[in-house]
Amino acid sequence: KRRMNLNPEAYRKAWATRLSSRWDWLSANGSELELIPFFRSSRMDFLQHFLPGKPLENNGQDSLGLMFSWAKNEHLSAGIDLEWADGFLTEYQENPVDSGSEFLKQTRPQGFHYDYTVKALNTAAWIQWQAELRSNLNFTVGLRAEHLAYRYDNKMVDGNTRDDGTECGFGGCLYTRPADRNDSFTNFSPELGLGYVLSEEKTLYLRASRGFRAPQATELYRLQSGQDVADLNSEILNSLEIGVKSQSDSLFYEFAIYRMQKHN
After folding, report:
1. Which of 8, 97, 113, 245 gives 20 to 30 Å between its CA and that of 149?
2. Using the 8-state DSSP alphabet, how is residue 6 labeled?
3. Alpha-helical regions (H) of the chain
């Protein structure tokens, strides 16, 4: 462990923990069930020494989750994922900006910039089916559906004022706090795949899929001057991949060519 910071104006103090358990059941008809409950918690203090005024950010999150999956004879599997989270973020500037332009001094005020909590509920369901079309040709199809809902609660004055509600110069403070709001995002992630067995060791495969990433709470609610609402959509990544993989007792390798296109 490293416990000495040679630059005391630059630091992150963070910790995180996770507790989980796993249960497996095998039924008489060959079905397998898996249940994984978990708990996660994290905290971080982050001195933003690279910004004028050097504000201190404190953030954290506690969450409870459950992952459930079912499989039948290695050909059909499905599952449900659930997670509820309660998070917070504050940003506090202890001293006024004492150097630089008048614009910096006026728009980056001393005091609190952000103070909010966000509750999130993430629910997802997925299914995957694998079939042998011929003795050397396998087919895979899958789909994941996910819904993420946020409930944001601003603990300060709405808008881009100082923490006491007074106006900043030059058209307003840099930091904007939106009013309390709820947001949600629904995404679908399909997958199609083909596997062609070239030999006992080599397999040629083709895979088409879509991935996604819903906006994070800091992207939605930690706004700046000129923003009232972060009008964001989920990032989407479509990919097509072809490759070959080989595995023997002494050597394993995989070679792939892929193309990806990202939106939002």
Report:
1. 113
2. S
3. 102-107, 217-221
